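During the reporting period, our protein records have gained a structure token line. One record among many is quoted in full directly below:
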Amino acid sequence: MDENERTPTVVVDGVHVTYTVNGAPAGGRGAATAALGRVLRRGGTAPAGRRVHAVRGVSFVAYRGEAIGLIGSNGSGKSTLLKAIAGLQPVERGQVYTHGQPSLLGVNAALMNDLTGERNVILGGLAMGMSRTEVRERYDEIVDFSGINEKDDAISRPMRTYSSGMGARLRFSIAAAKSHDVLLIDEALSTGDARFRRRSQARIDELRAAAGTVFLVSHSNSTITETCERALWLEAGTLRMDGPAKEVVAAYEEFTATGATAGPGAGAGAGAGAGAGAATGATTGAAIEAKTPGK
């Protein structure tokens, strides 16, 4: 694709995201700890929660037709960044501009556990913006794609009887039944078998060909390199590298093999793509904002 003809779909410009974690510290003693906390708070105010600076000054530009992988250690800010792009997580500083409506698909996406898979396909399809007619027309395709009905009539059972993998496959199948301007996928492809992953990767290619942009968070480096041509590496909330997926994954694997740690300034060494994203954000953000009501 000609560089001058590329259409930006997401601009993340100097974004910082913070949030507060409330409740007992990890490793507490359950009900006893909670009871002690209530006793200590009776005469005063509740203690302040721990402030987490999850994303630190991240900038990049995503273009129509791209599949972009997000990699990094646990707690590096990948899922938080996806939520910020989807408009589900407030941004403390910086700006996020999107062309079209982003759709976030996560393993923990809220379907209703007490309803059957069949009812969840209908409700999920409606929630994704399909009409009832479209849901009916695509119902068999969604169920077949998920593969959950191959051994028994699982689609007629309540979702609470599904394994985590079955639930994740059904969620992806519902989301992938509709084309999206921007589709954000959080770990959904790591739960299926090899055949389902191949089907999922083929469907992502179809979504990209339909002029969509796909973001994929995965702890499987092979999934990133097989599915995405570009990758963003986040560490300690900063963008360390932005470039071709194979190069970024190789750098990340070397980083993890040496047991290196990323401090607050890790993002200073981000790849050339990150710098270009920050520069492009200043010039394209206003244009995208003008075309995107409510952003």
